[in-house]
UniProtKB/TrEMBL annotation:
This is TonB-dependent receptor. It is a multi-pass membrane protein. The keyword Transport applies. Residues 45-154 form the TonB-dependent receptor plug domain. Residues 497-517 are annotated as: Disordered. PANTHER family: FE(3+) DICITRATE TRANSPORT PROTEIN FECA, IRON III DICITRATE TRANSPORT PROTEIN FECA. It holds the Pfam family Plug.
Length: 725
């Protein structure tokens, strides 16, 4: 959608009313808590009225993770499914939610949404590469009313490196590993009192998890900061990302899995292409002490196209078969893949938004308060097409577009306005934080072609409008030193998912189904403490109750409301640094994160989906654990050994136990993986040498049955050198 002047003017003018409120604030207001340009957590973490986790630079150095997924294993409550190649996409489920494409968890980079389309298609086919990340913020508590649209499964914000402020600074990292993996990342910037500029470049490639899953990515980011005048700062960032891979979205049938778990029979022809450009601009206006107005403008455009030659796995007695071949070609012989066609699915996404936000301190009722007011206008354009052909020429997207009309053509556009307000009351050792968010959303779906036919009937178009008020409140107590007891409740929300694949019976017969937004009530009670020197602990009880959970419909690519469900459990996390306890530079440390999801069940029968009340939610393991032990030497050596455990899961809402020939039904057995890392950073030398390994025991394990059986990554060892200046 183009920028609309009326919307832009409204967004820019609306803060004036908030500013008048700010000017009326008492001159005795306390100093405003620092507002990070890129973070979503405040500096005063003890007052945060909910559960959160920060994966900081220290943790990243210790774990030497291969990708964002390994970096997040140490966060309780997160289930990460390793079905893609080398961290190119994320599948994260929070507290029992379906991890598929991380669709129920808000992903952000420096506060900007990252999905293909945050409202219309919240799929994480892109996430910030770990190479650019300075820290990762994970928020699961009641503070979610400040962000959206997804407020059910929490938020993950990737905070990137800031622009240098004192001369020239940068780094160069070279990494190599097995599976033909290699990566080169360079970062250089210069800055001073008036601001600075920084360039980041990344190239990464390898063979992937399965055979014929080669991939290559490139990313370039330019970031700048300009201190325009006293109290005025401009921050800008532009980015370009490209992925070219042979990743197939189709898994294996049961017989294929027994023959070779890592095969991808049509991988050499299957393709996935993704190109993304992004823009983020921020203006920070420190109006006076304790009053700050920040305005963010963002835009992202993505084009992704996938090609595959197998629709359903295991159709030929547990083996897959080719779907589109010319007459006379045996489509049960996958060796004939070069002679056959396939299915292209090109899609285009564009979204933009503007968000002014006012942070101020005030003395309402004679007590210290910190308030946040803001609004956001957001628009999206989505174009989904599909081309199919039965000859080898259709392996070219350009040929497919020129040879036939789209088999499917769906246009989706979104217009959303969000308004939010939150206030923290400080009452001695107590802080009370009520908040409110209002979402006004219109999603328009227009099915122009489906099953190869054109459609202009009224049922092929749908305007889905809704308004949702989302309250939340949190309470924190800091009566003990370095200890916070917190409790909170908030209304969770996720926009309805538009149908992506439409069945039709002839022209003018397509029907778009209407789903209601997902709504939940999220409770939690917990404590986090670093009361004892060298020891940090956290424990959180949570209970999430859905009024309307959305599940996949009987037809793939459609969505229906599945009624009530409930997830409840306990999260534990801790760290012990014996070096701090005994006052020595030699530090032995232990870290642990554990989740017991003792309840994750449907509360309503659904005969069409084979679901009964009491069935466990799919991809919701009861136990998740990550434990590490390490040693840090004063010379700069850091060595760590760890294990990650995931217990058994169901792959569907019917809780099917018996595996079928397609491999799409059945349980997913438990697995435990061994990992280790070692690094050497001599003091004052500016370089680090590192070596890290994942799945060191080379265990073969199953991670997904969504499109057939998919194996987790085999043993991956990588090492490299990083030089910072």
């Amino acid at each position: 959608m183009p920028f609309k002047p009326t919307c832009l003017a409204a967004a820019l003018m609306s803060p004036l009313a908030l500013m008048s409120t700010a000017q009326a604030a008492s001159n005795e207001a306390v100093t405003l808590t620092a507002v990070s340009v890129s973070g979503i957590l405040p500096d005063d973490l003890e007052a945060v009225p909910g559960s959160f986790a920060v994966v900081d630079e220290r943790t990243l150095r210790e774990r030497q993770p291969f990708s964002v997924k390994e970096a997040l294993h140490a966060v309780p409550g997160l289930h990460i499914v390793d079905e893609d190649s080398f961290g190119l996409g994320l599948n994260i489920g929070v507290r029992g939610l379906d991890p598929r494409r991380t669709s129920r968890t808000l992903l952000m980079e420096d506060g900007m949404p990252l999905f293909l389309a945050p409202y219309g298609d919240p799929s994480a086919h892109y996430s910030t590469p770990l190479d650019r990340v300075r820290r990762i913020e994970v928020v699961k508590g009641s503070g979610q009313v400040l962000y959206g649209p997804q407020t059910i499964g929490g938020m993950i914000n990737f905070v990137t490196r800031p622009v240098p402020t004192d001369g020239v600074a940068g780094s160069v990292t070279a990494t190599v590993g097995n599976n033909a993996f290699n990566s080169l990342h360079a970062n250089i910037g210069v800055g001073g009192e008036r601001g600075g500029i920084m360039l980041d470049a990344l190239q990464k490639q390898g063979d992937g998890v399965r055979d014929n899953h080669d991939f290559k990515i490139q990313e370039y980011t330019l970031k700048g900061q300009l201190n325009v005048a006293e109290g005025h700062t401009l921050v800008g960032k532009v980015g370009y990302y490209r992925e070219d891979s042979n990743i197939s979205e189709t898994g294996l049938g049961a017989v294929e899995w027994q023959e070779d778990k890592f095969q991808a029979p049509t991988g050499k022809n299957d393709e996935f292409r993704h190109e993304r450009t992004s823009l983020q601009l921020q203006h920070i206006f420190d109006i006076k002490e304790g009053v700050r107005l920040s305005t963010q403008l963002y835009h992202a455009h993505a084009e992704r196209a996938s090609f595959r030659q197998i629709n359903e796995p295991g159709e030929a007695g547990g083996r897959s078969r080719l779907e589109r071949c010319p007459g006379g070609v045996d489509n049960t012989n996958l060796a004939n893949a070069d002679l056959c066609g396939g299915r292209w699915r090109p899609r285009e996404y564009s979204y933009w938004g503007i968000e002014p936000r006012l942070d101020l301190n005030h003395r309402l009722f004679g007590i210290d308060n910190v308030a946040v007011f803001g609004l956001r206008h957001h628009e999206e354009d989505i174009t989904r097409k599909q081309f199919r052909g039965n000859t080898p020429e259709f392996q070219s997207l350009g040929y497919a577009k020129s040879a036939v009309l789209p088999r499917e053509h769906i246009e989706i556009d979104v217009e959303a306005r969000s308004y939010y307000a939150q206030n923290t009351f400080y009452l001695g050792d107590w802080s009370l934080t009520p908040g409110l968010r209002l979402e006004e959303v219109r999603i328009r779906t227009d099915v122009r072609r489906a099953d190869g036919e054109s459609h202009s009937n009224p049922e092929a178009k749908l305007n889905n409008r809704f308004t949702k008020l989302l309250p939340g409140i949190g309470l924190a107590w800091n009566g003990l030193a370095n200890t916070t007891v917190f409790a909170g409740v908030h209304k969770g929300f996720a926009p309805p998912r538009p149908d992506r694949d439409i069945d039709a019976d002839g022209p003018d017969s397509a029907v778009v189904s209407k789903t209601r937004p997902e709504e939940s009530t999220n409770w939690e009670l917990g404590v986090r403490s670093s009361y004892f020197r060298g020891v940090t602990t956290e424990a959180t009880l949570f209970d999430t109750r859905f009024d309307e959970i959305v599940i996949g419909g009987a037809t793939p690519g459609t969505f229906v409301n599945g009624g009530k469900s409930r997830q409840a459990g306990l999260e534990l996390a801790g760290r012990v640094d014996f070096g701090k306890i005994f006052g020595t530079a030699h530090n032995v440390y232990l870290t642990a994160a554990y989740t017991n999801l003792f309840t994750a069940e449907f509360r309503k029968d659904d005969a069409a989906q084979g679901i009964r009340s009491g069935n466990r939610l799919p991809y919701a393991p009861k136990h998740l654990a990550s434990v590490s032990a390490g040693y840090q030497h004063p010379s700069g050596i850091d060595a760590r050994l760890g294990v990650d455990h995931v217990s058994r899961q169901y792959s569907d809402g019917a809780n099917t136990r018996q595996e079928d020939l397609s491999g799409m039904e059945g349980t997913i057995p438990a697995y435990t993986l061994l990992n280790a890392s070692v690094s050497y950073t001599p003091p004052g030398r500016g370089y680090t040498v590192f070596l890290s390994g994942q799945n060191l025991a080379n265990r073969e394990y199953l991670v997904s049955r969504v499109d057939g059986k998919v194996a987790g990554r085999e043993r991956q060892i990588f090492g490299g050198v990083r030089y910072s200046f």
